[in-house]
Amino acid sequence: MNNSSRRNFLLHTSIAAATTSLGIGCSTTYRTNQITNHRPVIISTWSFGKPANELALQTLQDGGSALDAVEQGIRLVESSGNSSVGLSGNPNAAGVPQLDACIMNGPGHRAGSVAGIEGVVHPITAARLVMEKTPHVMLVGRGARWFSEQQGLKTNDNAEDKKRYEAWLKKQKQNSLNKEINSDNHDTVTLIVIDKNGDIAGGCSTSGLSGKIPGRVGDSPIIGSGLYVDNEVGAAGATGLGENVMRYCASYQVVENMRQGMSPTKACAEAIKRIARIDPLGMNLGINFIAINKRGEFGAAGTQANFPYSITTKDFSEVRKGQALSAAYQKEGGNEK
Ligand code: SD4
Which residues partner with 103 through β-bridges? Predict the structure, then answer.
């Protein structure tokens, strides 16, 4: 082989290897949202994520980090009157909103989380402070509240809880302690940012399932379940029935699927299919995922139709539908008043 044919051989071999590892050129038909040159990219769950994405983008443009962008975006939803995020979230069976949140930063692979916290206006900030100011990853209940107060976070023990609880109870067709989980009574904000350098951060915040038994914690504050960030590969996050996510460490699985070369959409869909193959509920899981890879490609999938997710770059900001793995329809509920 002369020098030039050797150069060509090496070039073609490395392109073939690269395209194989990217999943390009194989016969799959899933949609890849390729916007590599558009970094930063911000993705979040549901349509109410769009203004949060836009604030996250603004935060980056003002010189903030990906982590700052995640925190600011999620804080917006936490104080927006959303019925599934923040203190305006629907109460638990004792009439109190109990909140869960987590945050994760790709560089350094650090994470913080709070669960079952009461009366704290911005649980996402509490989660960030757990990550940054303590040697721990997760604080729960009264300890999480105590820590938040020590850190000077705003609290509000809403005097109207009882009234709101009664109004909410009236709307329920069944006892709130019923084991049956209604897939229409929840929505979580999960928001992931990849900055222009390819660094990734993500966060999650929710009041969880309305009418839940006090002390119930869902997937959202559990690293690897409601959220996972791997700065080498990408990140994924969940919304839906936490019990069906956390039994499978599902966001971790989505990221591992991307590590194997799947596109973000396919990674979400394959994680769901794998769960549905094992689980007695089959596709009746009520779970949805968003994902983004290191190149800024993104995607989403859900067990049911109508999973809106929000996607924002400096060139566009819009709500799209994730790939539906069944025809069953889910209602978007979290921005209802
Ligand atoms: C939970 N996963 O607590 C949360 C709720 C949710 O869309 O995401 N709803 O189970």
Answer: 112, 203
